[in-house]
Specification:
Blueprint lengths: L1 H26 L3 H11 L42 E6 L13 E3 L3 E6 L2 E8 L3 E5 L8 E10 L8 E7 L9 H4 L2 E8 L6 E9 L2 E2 L3 E5 L9 E8 L2 E6 L2 E6 L11 E6 L8 E10 L4 H7 L2 E4 L16 H13 L5 E6 L6 H21 L8 E7 L10 H7 L1 E6 L1
Helix pairs in contact: 1-2
Length: about 400
């Protein structure tokens, strides 16, 4: 009996420790403990130095059978996110086990955590359609990003991401017939990276042929895939991690006015599911050259870091290359790189983190892209110069940024 009581006590104590660690991870109050938690959830060992562009750190997914993602693997990645983040959805405001508060569906899903991965994830538990109601306008230039995990890589089912121009956004069961224009990207994972992706379209009321391409990004069930979609008027591009899966110049009608983003799953094959998080919608087309040369400052949200870390994620490659190309073209251009954070955590910790992140960007531009270090200075402002409110997920995402200032 004493052994049972002791065991229950140990289990209770373990649950309390877990709860405390999750709270510290969310609030970022104790920097030292947070860093250890972040390293553990990202599968990292003790990090030496002050961060930087460690190529041993995975982008969004950690290690896989093919090894972790690195800057080198992203060497052909040209995705650059839009200038202003208008939506950031990480489901942290939703209670675990509940359907997300600001979403609509004709089916079922729930907010969950995933062992070994930080944050909350939206798990699709039944076939159906899932619509974030707070996205009701998608301009002619936008980018959409999210991370997705598939816990079963073999099957005929997949996750569909669609942009539609609908007369009635409540007609979830009949959205394809209701839509005047739509384009959807269908991702079908396959075992050993033998997956496929498809594109289906409807233009001015006319259904177009469906096309298919292979994809090798779904390597194991524990490795998230970073999905990035880029619309530039008629042109649409889809990236799965570093792979450009689609680049269609005349993908959509130039006058298509998308007012709906939806995800849908046509079939759930047994106890197998998709889970997603970090949905980020940004507007505007990147204009690096004009911003830095004529306005003397380029603000970007496309350089991403591991949580509470100065380690740059490899999907930042396209944004870094944008800046490097301008600096190579204008050999006399010198810049100050300034890091900024949101207001979560202490002022002192955020200030130090912002300085380390700016230093990591400088190091990456020098080592990866060959920019002379003497042309770059760094600084960090922490949370002291917000450009948006810190009381919404999108506002916080806008405040987490890197600025390049012409000197």
């Amino acid at each position: 009996m004493k052994k049972i009581v002791l065991l229950l006590g140990l289990l209770t104590g373990f649950s309390m420790v877990q709860a405390q660690l999750l709270k510290k991870l969310k609030d970022k109050v104790d920097k030292t403990v947070d860093k250890k938690v972040d390293d553990a959830t990202n599968g990292k060992k003790d990090e030496k130095g002050s961060g930087g562009t460690s190529e041993g750190t995975g982008g969004t997914g950690g290690s896989s059978s093919a090894g972790p993602a690195t800057m080198k693997t992203y060497s052909k990645y040209d995705f650059v996110p839009g200038e202003k983040i208008i939506v950031f959805e990480d489901f942290m405001q939703d209670k675990l086990g509940d359907f997300p508060d600001k979403w609509n569906t004709n089916s079922a899903g729930e907010v969950v955590t995933i062992e070994g991965k930080a944050g909350h994830w939206f798990k699709i538990t039944q076939k159906g359609i899932f619509l974030p109601e707070f996205i009701d306008s998608l301009p002619e230039n936008f980018t959409l990003e999210f991370d997705v995990v598939c816990d079963q890589l073999v099957g005929s089912w997949g996750l569909r991401t669609a942009f539609a121009e609908m007369a009635d956004r409540n007609k979830l069961d009949y959205w394809q017939s209701d839509a005047k224009n739509f384009i959807e990207f269908h991702i079908l994972p396959g075992g050993d990276g033998n997956g496929t992706s498809e594109v289906a379209r409807k233009t001015a009321g006319v259904q177009q042929a469906t096309n298919s391409n292979p994809t090798k990004q779904f390597l194991d069930a524990s490795r998230p895939v970073h999905v990035a979609i880029w619309r530039q008027k008629e042109r649409m591009r889809l990236y799965l991690n570093e792979e450009k899966a689609w680049d269609i110049p005349k993908a959509v009608s130039p006058d298509a006015k998308f007012n709906t983003l939806l995800f849908w799953v046509q079939l759930i094959d047994g106890d197998h599911h998709f889970m997603m998080t970090n949905l980020r919608l940004a507007t505007g087309a990147p204009d690096t050259r004009n911003k830095i040369l004529k306005e003397s400052k380029w603000v970007t949200h496309g350089i991403l870091f591991d949580v509470n870390s100065a380690t740059i994620k490899p999907e930042s490659y396209g944004t870094l290359k944008e800046m490097a190309d301008v600096m190579k073209e204008y050999a006399d251009l010198k810049v100050k790189i300034v890091g900024h954070t949101d207001a979560d955590g202490s002022d002192a910790a955020n200030l130090e983190l912002s300085k380390k992140r700016a230093a990591s960007v400088k190091e990456s531009l020098a080592k990866v892209f060959g920019i002379d270090e003497s042309r770059m200075e760094t600084d960090g402002k922490g949370e002291s110069e917000p450009i948006d409110k810190n009381d919404t997920p999108a506002g916080k995402a806008n405040n987490r940024r890197v600025e390049f200032i012409k000197m």
